[in-house]
Amino acid sequence: MDKEYPDINKAIEDVFDGASIALGGFFSCGNPVYLTTALSKLDVKNLIIIAMTMGIGNWELNELLRNRQIKKAICNYPFFRSVSRRSIFEEQLRAGEIECELTPMGTFIERLRAGGAGIPAFYTPTGVGTLIAQNKEVRLCDGKEYLLEKAIKPDFAFIHAYKADRTGNIVFRKTARNYNPEMAKAAKVTIAEVENIVEPGELNQEMIHLPGIYVQRLVKVDRPQIEATIEKPPEK
Amino acid sequence: MDKEYPDINKAIEDVFDGASIALGGFFSCGNPVYLTTALSKLDVKNLIIIAMTMGIGNWELNELLRNRQIKKAICNYPFFRSVSRRSIFEEQLRAGEIECELTPMGTFIERLRAGGAGIPAFYTPTGVGTLIAQNKEVRLCDGKEYLLEKAIKPDFAFIHAYKADRTGNIVFRKTARNYNPEMAKAAKVTIAEVENIVEPGELNQEMIHLPGIYVQRLVKVDRPQIEATIEKPPEK
Amino acid sequence: MGKKFEGISRELMALRIANEIPDGSYANLGIGIPTLVSNWTEGRDIVFETEIGMLNTGPLAMGGEVDQDLINASCQPITELPGACYFSEAESFAMIRGGYMDVAVLGAFQVSAKGDFCGWNIPGQRPGHTGNIGGSMDLAVGAKKLIIAIEHTMKTGELKILDECTYPLTAKGAVDLIVTNLAVIEVAKEGLLLKEVASGLTPEDIQSVTEPKLIISPDVKEIEF
Amino acid sequence: MGKKFEGISRELMALRIANEIPDGSYANLGIGIPTLVSNWTEGRDIVFETEIGMLNTGPLAMGGEVDQDLINASCQPITELPGACYFSEAESFAMIRGGYMDVAVLGAFQVSAKGDFCGWNIPGQRPGHTGNIGGSMDLAVGAKKLIIAIEHTMKTGELKILDECTYPLTAKGAVDLIVTNLAVIEVAKEGLLLKEVASGLTPEDIQSVTEPKLIISPDVKEIEF
User: Fold this and answer.
1) Which residue, D37, D66, D217, D221, has fewest beta-carbon neighbours within 10 Å?
2) Which domains does chain C have, with CATH numbers?
3) Longest CA–CA separation in chain B, Å
4) Which of D51, D65, D204, D211 is an active site residue?
C-alpha cells in the first residue's frame, strides 16, 4: 500500500460541500498548514470545521473564514485571549453568519477518540453544572453527576506529521502530536501532510504514534517555518 | 522521583484482603510473573483478579487459585481452548467456589481505559443481543443498539515492562505491551516489574508507551524465560 | 441430521477466503481455519492485524526467530513484516470496534439465516454461561465484512447453518459471507444466497445439509480458486 | 465595591503557591499568575504537565533553544527536562480527568464560598454564551487539589470572592484553596476559612473585600514564604 499522493490538490479533491473536517494542531503547533491553504482554494462551502481554535495560531484557517466556506465550528478556544481583539471568526459569529459548538478541551478530544473507537457516547464529569450541560443528559454514577457526550466522526481529518512510511504509519514530533492522532482515527478519510516520507521498515515499529490503518493519504511537504505565537498572524 | 523499590515484597506489602488487582499479559506474553508469584506468597484472600485468562499461559496465577486467594475473576478468556481440559479455575467455578465476570476482550480493555480516563461509563456495540447484554442498559444511538458498560478501577495493577526510567516512564517490547498500559492507568497503585531500569533522560521521550505519572513503584527483575504456549504449564 | 459430503479441504477453504479479500485491505484472522488464510496471501497487498496489538504480522516464527515477546492472538510465536507496528490492547480494539478492519474471518459453532452466529459457548460444556469470548464479539460487530469459515456440518452430522441459532450468540446479524467445505453462501437481506458449490455437488445437495431455505443464485457455480 | 489594599506581588503569590505543592507531585499550571509558580520550583521534586501533551516541561526556551514543535498550553516555546515524555491530547486529558494531576493552579474571574468558580465568560464580552474554555473545565473537575490564584478584587474594586458566582461557571464546588495578593483562604465544608493574611492587614481588612462571611482560623497568621 503506497498512500502517497504526488499532488496535494488531488489528495483533497473529493472534499464536498457540507463536509465535516477535523484540523489538527494546538495553537501554532502541528497544524496542517499546507492542507488548510489548499482547502481555502477549493470551491467548497458550508463546511463544519473541527479544530481547537478558529484562526488563532492556525492562521491559515482565517482564509476559509474570509471565503465564507465555514458554516459551523466545533472548537474549545475560538477567540483571541484579549477580549479587545476580535478575530474574523468572532466578527462572523457576532453577525450571526456562522455557528459555534463550544466543547471543553478534554471533552472535545474524547469525543473524537470515541468517534474513532466505535463508542457512540460516554459520560464525563467535565462541564456538570455549567452552560456546557445545557440540553445534555445527566446521570448519577456512584452518587456523582456526569454528562452524556456524543462521539464526533468527521468526514475528513487533515493532519500534520513529521515522518511517515508509505503505508501511512506516522511519527509526530514533540508537542506537534496533540490532536492529530485522534482526529485521524475519528475521520472517515485522513489526509496527512508529512515532512519526511520513508519506506516501510525504516521507522522504529515501537514508536509509531499513529498506525497506518488510520491514514488513507499522504502528501510530502516542506517543513513549515512557524512562529510560536497567538498574538499576531505572520506578515505576508 | 525515584520509584524503584529494592525488594519486590516491600513493593506489594500493602495489598489487602479483598483488593482488586489487574494483571497485565496476553496468554504467555507480558505477564507480571514475578509479582504474581510474590502475591501468591502473601497472606491475602478474597482478591478480585482482573486478567485476560485465569491460569492459561499466565501459569503463575494458578498458585493464587490453589491457595484459594481469589474470590472473583474479571476476564475474557478464562479456560483452556480444548473443552476436554479443565483448569484449576474451571474446577473452582464448577464447585461454586469462585465468581466469574466474563466480558468481551474489547469491552474488557475499554472498561479499564475508561477507569483510568475518568469516564464512569460508555456505550458500545459489542455484545448487543447476547448473554453479555443481560441486566445491562441498551440505548439507541442513530437507530443502532448499544450497551452501557462501566469503568473498572482496580486498587492495584501489576505489570511487566522491558524498560523504565526511575521516574516511572515505561517502554514495552513488541506484543508484550498488550493490556499493561491501560491496567496501569486504571489502577490506584501500579507496580511494574521491569527488566531494565535506567536514569531519567536515557529513554527516547517520543517513545514512552506509559508516562511515569501512572506508575507508582518499580521493581527490577531478570528477563524471564517463557515458552509461548497455552497448552502446558512449564515443568518445575 | 444431514447427509455427509466431503467437499473441499480446509486449505482450499482458506484459499477461497483469501481470494475474497481485496488488495489494500486490513484483515484479522481468528483461530482455526481462518488462520490458514494467511498461507495464501504472499505477494498480496493485505495487512493482517492481531488483537494482541500489532499490524503487519508475518509468518509463524521458526527456530531462532522465536521471540517470547512476539506472539499472535492464538499464542503462537510470529514474525513481523516491514511496516509493522505495535500498540496497546485498547488501541487494538478501538481500531476493531471503530470499523477499521475491512475483513474479519472467524470460526463458528452455528450460523443463522439472519447472519447471527455463535462461537463461544455450547451449553453444558462450561460451568454456567461462561466460555472463551476473547475478541470474537468485538470483531463481529466491528469488521466491515465478516466471513465465517466452517465445516458445513458437525462431525456428528448435525447442521450448523440454521434458521435460528440454538447456542448463545456471539453477535446478531453480523455475518456477511459463509465459506464452508461445501459451499459459498452470502447472507443477503432476503435470506441465504447460495453462490458457489463444491465440485461434484448440486444446490440440492447443499440444501439437504442446510436448514434455512436457500436462495439459489442464478449465477451459481463451482467454487473457484 | 471594597476598599483597595496592595498586598503581595504576583511573584510572591506564585512562591506561596509553590510552597503549597508537595514534593513528589504532578502539577498543571494555567495561564497568568499560575504560570509564574514554576519560577519557584527549581530543585524541587515536582513534575509539570502541559495540556498539549507533555510531562516534565522545562523553563521557557530562549534564543537558539526555540523549537516550533515544542510549546506549552499558552503557546510559549519551552524546553524539556530529563524524564520528559510526549503524548497525545486524548492521553493528556485522560490523565487530567482520570485524577492524576495532584495539583492544578488556575486563574478565575470569580470564586464562590462553595468552591464554584468562573473563568471563561464574562457576559457581554463575547457573542452569545461563548468563550475560551480550553482545558479549564477538565482541570477543574480532574485535579485532586485545585488552587485558584487571583487578585483579591478587580482593578475596578469589584469583589471577586462572592457568595454566589454571577458569571457562567467553569465548575461547581471544585476549588480547594484561594491564594490572592491579600490572603490565603481554604474552601472548607463550613465555608471560607481565612488562614493567612498579607503583612500589615487584619482579618477585618480581608473581610471588607470579601462577600462571604469568612471563618477566621484560630491559627490565622501572616502569609509565609
Assistant:
1) D221
2) 10-222 (3.40.1080.10)
3) 56
4) D51
Which burial class, exposed, middle or buried, applies to C99 when counting CB atoms under 10 A from its CB (0-12, 13-18, 19+)? middle
Cα–Cα distance for residue pair A173/A180, rounded to 1 Å: 11
Q: Give φ, ψ of B150 to 5 degrees.
A: -105, 150
Query: Taking CB atoms and an 8 Å cutoff, what residues of chain B touch D93?
Result: 117
Rounded-to-integer distance, Cα A41 and Cα B151, Å: 46
Q: Cell triple for residue B215? A: 506508575
Please state the separation of Cα C156 from the chain's center in Å: 21
Distance of CA A63 to the CA centre of its chain: 16
Q: Supply the DSSP string of B188-228, one letter for each residue.
A: SEEEEEEEEEE-TTSS-GGG-SB-GGG--EEEE-PPPP---
Determine whether the interchain pair B117/D86 forms a contact, defined as Cβ–Cβ distance below 8 Å: no
Identify residue B30 by its one-letter amino acid code: G
Cα–Cα nearest to B105, from C137, D112, D136: C137
d(CA B174, CA B49): 25
Per-residue pLDDT at B122 exceeds 80: yes
Alpha carbon distance C35, D89 (integer Å): 37
| Distant-in-sequence, close-in-space partners of B235: CB < 8 Å, separation ≥ 6 | none
Query: D19-74: per-residue pLDDT in tens?
Result: 999 999 999 999 889 999 999 999 999 999 999 999 999 999 999 999 999 999 99
Which residues in B have their CB inside 8 Å of a CB on A? 110, 114, 117-125, 139, 141-142, 144, 146, 150, 171-174, 204, 206-207, 209
Sign of CA dihedral A220, A223, A228, A232: negative
Judge whether residue C1 has pLDDT over 60. no
List phi, psi (to 5°) of D39.
-70, -15
Helices D89-97, A105-116: axis angle to 10 degrees equals 120
Three-class DSSP category at D14: helix
Strands C54-60 and C78-86, bridge-based pairing = antiparallel
Question: Which secondary-structure segment (H or E) carries C105?
Answer: strand C103-106
Q: Which amino acid is at B14?
A: D
With contact defined as beta carbons under 8 Å apart, do A98 and A70 qualify? yes
Partners of residue A193 on adjacent β-strands: A160, A219
3-state secondary structure of A217: strand
Q: Which residues of C touch A201 (CB under 8 A)?
A: 82-83
Beta strands in chain B (DSSP E): 20-23, 47-50, 70-75, 99-102, 121-124, 138-141, 144-150, 156-165, 170-171, 189-198, 217-220
What does the pLDDT look like over D98-125, one tens digit per residue? 999 999 999 999 999 999 999 999 999 9
Q: How far apart, in whole angstroms, are the C-alpha atoms of residue C159 and residue C209? A: 6
Phi, psi for C183 (deg, rounded to 5): -160, 165
With an 8 Å CB cutoff and a minimum of 3 pairs, decide whether chains A and C touch: yes
Instruction: Confirm whether C51 is a catalytic residue.
Output: yes
Asked whether the beta carbons of A146 and C125 are under 8 A apart, the reply is no
Cα separation, C54 vs C39, whole angstroms: 18
pLDDT score of D1 more than 60: no
B162 to chain A: closest CA residue: A206
Which residues does residue B154 pair with via DSSP β-bridges, in sequence order?
Answer: none
Cβ atoms B28, B230 nearer than 8 A: yes
B58-64: list long-range contacts, CB under 8 Å, 24+ apart.
B58/B23, B58/B25, B58/B27, B58/B28, B58/B31, B58/B33, B59/B233, B59/B234, B60/B31, B60/B33, B60/B36, B61/B23, B61/B36, B62/B87, B62/B88, B62/B89, B62/B233, B63/B36, B63/B37, B64/B36, B64/B39, B64/B40
| Lookup: cell for D154 | 478587580
In this prediction the pTM is 0.98
Go through the domains of chain A in sequence order and give each one's CATH number.
8-220 (3.40.1080.10)
What is the enclosing helix (H) or strand (E) of D43?
A: none
